[in-house]
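[retry 2/3] 2-oxoadipate dioxygenase/decarboxylase: previous attempt timed out, resubmitting with same input.
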Amino acid sequence: MSAVFTSPSQIRAQFSRAMSDMYRAEVPQYGTLMALVSDVNAEVLASVGAAAAGAAGQESRIEVERHGAIRVGTPAELATIRRLFGVMGMVPVGYYDLSVAGVPVHSTAFRPKDTDGLAENPFRVFTSLLRLDLIQDATLRDAAAAVLATRSIFTPGCLALIERAEQQGGLAAEDAARFVAEALETFRWHGKSTVDADLYWKLRKTHPLIADIVCFPGPHINHLTPRTLDIDIVQTQMPARGISPKAVVEGPPTRRCPILLRQTSFLALSEPVTFRDGGEAGTHTARFGEIEQRGVALTAKGRKLYDELLNEVRKVITPAGDGSNADAYRQTLGDVFQAFPDDHQALRQQGLAYYRYAVGNAAADGGDVEALIAAGALVAEPITYEDFLPVSAAGIFQSNLGDENRDDLQASPNRAAFEQALGATVSDELALYAAAQQASLDTALKALGLA
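[retry 2/3] 2-oxoadipate dioxygenase/decarboxylase: success.
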């Protein structure tokens, strides 16, 4: 008799819940944030409904939806993280070069890539690999590499269970529960640095994120993000809950038809740190709270227009870290993005965004897709954007890494090196959305007898 395995989606749900509980205990304001987001989502659903909020049929996933972010130091760590997330049915999707925004990492997002897996539990982890090659000081670069070479960020039990899952093709319930507990240890916060104070401060001066990756026992989860249905309401209500939001919401402006991803956060904690040599205790700033609102996924054409408009905005104004030009930035962003259609029919007909098709309430008399939609025989709902935006991610990172000086970095994307470290190719997110759109259309047309 074949073994009965816990499904990857169930393991993912268990892990996401355990991670949320751990982070709530470590960062109390996360609990406050969760309560605020839950209240706002309930208000939005009651006032306008899920469809108008761009979340048709997603009510059950909204409350449990999270994304986390981690940063690893070596190719070996990244390759094992890929195997760890693979046990949970999460695969690398997309390549993100953050060096373009002065952050010395490149990244991918581990997430389910199939529609059913996303519906069951859409947990994602944005995972960044340190670019040691971008540290200009060779002595410092070698010192960082030496520190990273001596650490092991996975428990022996976790590694054994990853191997068992790969050999067996899954994990039984008892092993799945043990796996979740063992894997959680990789992401726990440790206030004791693995380096002496002198090296910590040298790395931090080079770039705070380098110190965050190199100087601790593992890749502590640095934020865990709930999804809201109206990020502007959350942004304005955060101060009343004792939370200080960053000045500007990253991503597109407020729209009737949300696109891609909008993100905001509260400022990072300054947490006490002790050093290996007993040097003077310091503080480390890394972990923060983040909130996101997700809109419709854009096609290559739509994404090109988005990037062009965002570049146009940034030529005029870049958000200041202290928020001093926040109003001017929001005004410029809104003005420039008037050029981006804000109507689902226009977005669909102009090929700017992806939609999921289903059979409507009216009879089908033939005709093309637009005629079937106009007749009510076919309905189109926006496909949610499940991924990330490099400029937005960098903006969140930068706003929470402190204002100290850091070395300038040259933009240098290197997807081939990242995939070599990963031990796999990353999936193309646009291809996944296009496939989901086409599959839904094929199924709907077949049901209408028009295939």
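[retry 2/3] 2-oxoadipate dioxygenase/decarboxylase: Residues 402-407 have pLDDT under 50 and may be disordered.
[retry 2/3] clearing retry counter.
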